């Protein structure tokens, strides 16, 4: 019988030149940090996960060593306690699913229910480009087969200056591509980087933006208000035909339960690498389906996190799209997926998951040695 034999956590750093100017940060990112979690069993198999920094996990290894890795609900409960007391340790859950798939010789998407073996992607941009450059990027996405694109608005006054300037960029895209591309907008109001003390929009601000997005037939409006303003988001959803989306950094499953029960969001976006792992987010997906709320994960991590969210979405979900972080040249597939032997590649806007047992992650050990912190 398989038993967990060891757990290894390593940290890696890739220098970025040119820097990546993320719309939600404002300060150029000159490096990309990745945490890798490896769970090995007594028969030599290894499960791999990645996502948050695993702060607080050290010292709790004994809660898993000697356990059957396939007891995923048991491990979820332990991780939920660790994550309550310390940091987000959900990459461990991803590694356990990967290892369980290798034990059972099944891909994770099939273990989760097997609704599909591939997911439709939307291209998620991250850089605040000038309007014409944003339109150029949209055309490139169309040429590659993406059905939809997410456009970022400024998170604070350090971006384009105002939401009206952001709307100008959106107008340039719509004028160029017409209805050939669905457009989503991330308003970047739900949370802030630690250094950013800019207040979030008020309800009136968000409603004014929503009216502009209605005019431009935007598919959803993401994080338009502070994350705790459930009532404001419900009112906004009632006041506009644009879908209201959010939840990417929400920490607890019960918060999603409350959001779903209140119909505060039309689209919920948990990330398995940040909230609940695959085990917890599976529960959220079922709750959302019963309530008629769209479930489509956030996945702005590296390729391991993208794969994990894709397996969950394919296995249990009915999401029309899954987020695919991709904004050349600053956020290329090669940069995003540097821990892996080969970066993920889409085929005409689809990510095919195949029959490889587990998540299908193959690490680039040489690159990981060279980037280890």
Automatic annotation (TrEMBL):
Record Gene3D superfamilies: Enolase-like C-terminal domain, Enolase-like, N-terminal domain
Q: Which residues form the Mandelate racemase/muconate lactonizing enzyme C-terminal domain?
A: 131-243
**InterPro entries xref list:** Enolase-like_C_sf, Enolase-like_N, Enolase_C-like, Mandelate_racemase_C, RHMD-like
Q: Which GO terms describe its biological process?
A: carbohydrate catabolic process
Q: Is 4Fe-4S there in the keyword field?
A: no
Instruction: Kindly list the GO molecular function terms attached to this UniProt entry.
Output: hydro-lyase activity; magnesium ion binding
Q: Which cofactor does it need?
A: Mg(2+)
Q: Name one Pfam family in it.
A: MR_MLE_C
Q: Does the keyword Metal-binding apply?
A: yes
Alphabetic keyword roster = Magnesium, Metal-binding
The record's listing under SMART domains reads: MR_MLE (SM00922)
What is the protein named?
L-alanine-DL-glutamate epimerase-like enolase superfamily enzyme
Species annotation: Rhizobium giardinii
């Amino acid at each position: 019988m398989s038993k967990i034999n060891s757990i290894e956590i390593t940290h890696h750093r890739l220098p970025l030149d040119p820097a990546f100017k993320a719309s939600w940060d404002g300060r150029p990112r000159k490096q990309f940090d990745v945490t890798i979690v490896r769970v090995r069993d007594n028969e030599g198999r290894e499960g791999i996960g990645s996502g948050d920094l695993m702060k607080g996990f050290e010292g709790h290894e004994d809660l898993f060593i000697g356990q059957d890795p396939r007891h995923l609900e048991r491990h979820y409960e332990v991780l939920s306690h660790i994550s309550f007391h310390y940091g987000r340790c959900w990459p461990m859950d991803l590694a356990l699913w990967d290892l369980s798939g290798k034990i059972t010789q099944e891909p994770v998407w099939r273990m989760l229910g097997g609704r599909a073996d591939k997911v439709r992607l939307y291209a998620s941009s991250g850089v605040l480009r000038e309007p014409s450059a944003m339109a150029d990027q949209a055309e490139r996405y169309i040429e590659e087969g993406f059905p939809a694109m997410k456009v970022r608005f400024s998170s604070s006054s350090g971006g384009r200056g105002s939401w009206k300037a952001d709307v100008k960029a959106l107008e340039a895209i719509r004028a160029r591509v017409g209805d050939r591309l669905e457009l989503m907008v991330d308003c970047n109001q739900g949370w802030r980087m630690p250094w950013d003390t800019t207040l979030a929009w008020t309800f009136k601000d968000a409603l004014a933006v929503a009216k502009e997005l209605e005019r431009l037939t935007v598919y959803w409006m993401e994080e338009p208000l502070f994350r705790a303003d459930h009532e404001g988001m419900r009112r906004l959803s009632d006041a506009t035909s644009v879908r209201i989306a959010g939840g990417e950094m929400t920490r607890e499953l019960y918060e999603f339960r409350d959001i779903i029960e209140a119909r505060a969001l039309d689209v919920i976006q948990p990330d398995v690498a940040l909230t609940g792992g695959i085990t917890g987010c599976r529960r959220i997906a079922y709750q959302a389906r019963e309530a008629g709320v769209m479930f489509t994960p956030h996945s702005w991590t590296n390729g391991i996190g993208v794969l994990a969210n894709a397996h969950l979405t394919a296995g249990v979900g009915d999401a029309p799209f899954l987020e695919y972080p991709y904004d050349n040249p600053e956020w290329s597939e090669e940069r995003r997926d540097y821990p892996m032997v080969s970066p993920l590649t889409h085929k005409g806007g689809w990510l095919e998951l195949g029959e490889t047992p587990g998540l299908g992650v193959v690490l680039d050990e040489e690159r990981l040695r060279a980037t280890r912190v």
